[in-house]
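Hi support team,

I'm filing this because I wasn't sure whether my run with calcium ion finished correctly. The job status page said complete, but I'd like someone to confirm that the output block is well-formed before I use it downstream. Pasting the exact inputs I used:
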Amino acid sequence: MPEYLEVAVEIAREAGALIAQLAQRPHEIIYKRPSDLVTEADRRSESLIVERLRSHFPPHAIVAEEGGGRETNSDYCWYVDPLDGTTNFAHGFPVYCVSLGLAYRGEVIAGVVYDPTRDELFTAERGAGAYLNHKRLAVSKTSALRESLLATGFPPFAANHEINIEFFFRLTQRSHGIRRAGSAALDLCSVAAARFDGFWELKLNPWDKAAGALMVLEAGGKVTDLAGHPFALLEDEIFASNGHIHEESVRVFSEALAQREERA
Ligand code: IPD
Ligand code: CA
Ligand code: CA
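And here is everything the job wrote out:
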């Protein structure tokens, strides 16, 4: 394992343990916007992660969700989601994680996602595969949408909800169903681990998806936008799948978009 991945694993485990400990206590919810929450756990986890990254890799840039990052001239940049699934955490629904992705010149080269509730550690290195607790991951072999289990998410503020509900409606009718569990990083890891056959979301930040997208690619899956164009870390949309159901799903997204335009 390269040093940066080893260090990221250690940090993600430490931050995960902190979150698990804070989950046992009552937590105050602070509102960034209506329905956009932040807790002490998000802030403390971020401070811990940023401090550790800075001491291990002083020149590296850091983009962290709660604003604790720093700009540098380095080609290396860490994308940090100190607690992905804050709404779940705040309500005591045990689906959340820590997500760290490292990009070199804009391309993700390593990712770590740690789920403290299940003690599941997902790791990926570009060109060297994806692993869950040291076991190599491979995406599912499901070849038809009608036999697929899918997942999606809705950003905490009302952007694009209508069209996503339309996608949700159409894909529910054509698959085994859609899960909306509330942690995009874990959703992506579930595609890598063959638990889901596909996951899409319309508006994600780079810290939500950097590590998870690499996980899917390294497990042999496909990652694009909803039109099937290559994945770009700084773009909002993502559609990640096992590859086999990709084209069929992209057709459903584009049918829904075309019908919406006709109605407008
Ligand atoms: C959110 C979760 C959720 C997704 C939202 C994200 P947060 O991240 O990943 O599943 O639907 O778009 O913002 O706020 O819990 O870190
Ligand atoms: Ca997130
Ligand atoms: Ca977060």
